[in-house]
């Protein structure tokens, strides 16, 4: 099952993170969390891996609407956006909001999921050029 969207982005890793945050903000998302997975794993267990950062993005308007329809939805929020390097390329990946919200089985979330997913895809498209 496909559960995300991705694009390859040119630029230095830290710059791509900054550009990703800016592109999300332009579409109404705030970044609530930033987890440097590579640094955390190195510190905790000495594991080496390529740069990998998870941004927890939330659009408050859509989050509020969705939580009104599905109070337990907080278990799935925020929307994760990953900036990672693999084989010399930097990828930005975003959760497929439809797949994420689909696990609830609540058909009232279909519209919200579609709108959020469109904004996340727009974010990835903006980073391409």
Automatic annotation (TrEMBL):
Pfam families (alphabetical)? DUF302
Q: Which residues form the DUF302 domain?
A: 35-96
* InterPro entries from the UniProt entry: DUF302, TT1751-like_sf, UCP021774
Gene3D superfamilies membership: TT1751-like domain
The name of this protein is DUF302 domain-containing protein
Species of origin reads mine drainage metagenome
């Amino acid at each position: 099952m496909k559960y995300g969207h991705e694009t390859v982005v040119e630029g230095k890793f830290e710059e791509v993170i900054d550009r990703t945050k800016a592109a999300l903000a332009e579409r109404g998302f705030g970044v609530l969390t930033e987890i440097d997975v590579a640094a955390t794993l190195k510190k905790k267990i000495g594991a080496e891996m390529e740069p990998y950062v998870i941004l927890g993005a939330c659009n408050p308007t859509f989050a509020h609407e969705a939580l009104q329809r599905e109070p337990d939805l907080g278990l799935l929020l925020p929307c994760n956006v990953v900036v990672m390097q693999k084989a010399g390329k930097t990828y930005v990946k975003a959760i497929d909001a439809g797949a994420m919200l689909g696990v609830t089985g609540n058909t009232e979330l279909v519209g919200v999921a579609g709108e959020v997913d469109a904004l996340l895809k727009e974010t990835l498209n903006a980073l391409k050029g």
